[in-house]
Design a protein that fits this description.
Layout: E1 19-31, E2 38-49, E3 52-65, E4 71-88, E5 91-107, E6 114-133, E7 136-145, E8 153-155, E9 159-162, E10 168-179
Length: 180
Amino acid sequence: APPTPPVAQPLPAVPRTRTSSEAWLEAGGVYGVVPAASASFGLGAGLSRGALGASLSARYVLPRTSRGEDRVRVRGTELDALLTWRALPRLTLALGPDLQLLRGRGVGVARARSAWLVVAGPKLELRVRVLQRARGGLDLSGFAAVPVERPRFLVDEYGTVFRPAVTQFGVNLRYALLSR
């Protein structure tokens, strides 16, 4: 009798990697972006597949005024695009570019003028999911950003009146809506 041909075995099932998205609102505080510690409010969105993902967010930093006779009032808008890695089920690390658009206006000077600064550099963020629900979650995040260049606001009579910090820090409380 002729030999029987081997029977092909079915391939094992490959687990599907889940894709999910989220959108969030956040409130927090920052130090080093404007002349003093300040509150910030923002929104963002992210997309992830498995443990890897990406997010985009925007934040408004409330204005603060520098001290002294030569003062400037500075407000900011911050934008970031981060690559994310969920290291643990409730812990995410993120890294990417951070861009800040700062607007300053002279205070207490004879002829107040306004100017814009652009500040950019890398940002590292750590997020912890402190509360998880079926369709949302509450995150606590902390970040550090390091501007590549530190432009300055100048007043002719006084020189530099404000320059962003060498390292900027912040914390946020974020409420995220999930879509799976």
